[in-house]
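Review form for a predicted model. The reviewer records the input and the model, then writes brief findings.
Reviewer: anonymous (R2)
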Amino acid sequence: MSFLDTLRQWDDAVTCVDRKDLTEALRIFLAIHQPNSKISFNIGCLQLLNQNLDAAEKAFDSSICKDEHLAVAFFQRGITFYKMNRYEESIGDFQLALKSLRGNQLIDYKVLGLRYKLYACEVLHNMALSEAHLGQWEKAQKNLTKALEYKTDAKVNIINRAMQSTLKQKVFQAVEFPSTVLFRPNKHYVAELEKKDYLGKAKVVASVIPQDQFSGFAPLQPQVEQEPSGPKEPEVLRALEGDPHVVRYEFIPETSDELPVVPGNIVFVLQKGSDNWASVVFNGRKGLVPYNYLERLEMSLGGLQKVERSEPPSRVPPTRPERKQGLVRGESSSEDLQQKEAQPADSSCVVKVYYTFNFAVLLASGSTFKTLIENISKKLNTSSLSITLRLTSDATSAMSEDTDMESVWSGAQSKRLKLWCSTKEQTSVKSQNNDIILVAIHSYESTNPEDLNFNQGDKIMLISKSNHPLIPLKTYFGFKCSEMIFLFIFWLLQLTRTGWKDILMETLASFLLPLWRKFL
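Model under review:
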């Protein structure tokens, strides 16, 4: 049996208990295959209520086997043994129930679906009662005394009366579990048993058919091969741009800007030309249709205005009017004309440039070398004079203004051209004193006091190269030089403090001596 079926039967049985129909509830519970511990506990309670003690014992045994920590099941089985005069077994179950309480004053089973609180003092009370039946009055008094430690305000009178009866060696009444209080299924799970319509019922909001309230799916209708004998009733349409017209004859287009229509279609005329051709809209498409194939459709907000019609038209359509150059498809909309004129011929080419990073430039095929170099310089944000273009990665294939651009563009494959680029800023330039000069491509603002600030375009002299994080530099502007020497020596002292002798010696050999020669 699936979980949903078990949950549904469980809920039905609990509903029968609420209606006081205990026999039907027990029948539904017994029909559940492989019941869990809670359902077995419910069966035992109903069997105990019917005084069927043997069946109740078996049900509580099944519940305990499936949940060894269900204290209330031990308590109920202990009451069953008590009613069967099996007092020693009753005492054992009460002890197991007390052990499952784990020293707590009570257990509230509301979270598990049972509206009942099992008190430790009640368990000790019934244990003392079973001992009293066996004549063990001293043990009964000790358990009642222990029950006073777990008592609550609502249970004081029960313990006191039991204590007085024990002193007189009289048997007192047991505290029993309310048998009609059962474990209930999770209400959230029960709520999911009912089918829910998340989409709701369809409702007709607008239709082209008058008095149409059908919201389902109609079956396929047989197609009519021949033209109907009578005129088609006009349909109620929402207001669109243009004047509504009904197509009277089938029109087969001969050019791409003409629109195919069949009799009965409703089109909206945007413009009528002097050559008897009309620019129409049909199903979101614009095109040209002979105006003598159309008939004006009169519509009003109040409903349809039936127009007196003549006899059905003959099957032979009128002659096709001659086209003039004035009217083209979509001419009725000036915006469409502007967009159509603004669309250039698809002669563009994608130029992929390999630089320190790769990028692409879109140019018209056949552009001059000057146009090409200017677009790439704008992309790199640098001067066009400092850019060198090559057809291959080899340095010997450099391009210039004398390069035959027609052969270059003819080498484009699938409208894609590959070029290699380099700039003068990337190469090292030596000054007259054989000093290596670098040009700053980007500005840099230092975040540490030992770093050097520079702006884009500044020329920087490279003194030495190293894998160390500090590279001493000297600008042509002459500032930061003495400060850099001081900070560099301060950095070396910091290395000395940390015990990095090997790094210090290497730094002196590679940095300090060249720095001393350059500045002094």
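Findings: The longest helix spans residues 501-519.
Further findings: The chain has 15 helices and 17 strands.
Recommendation: see findings above.
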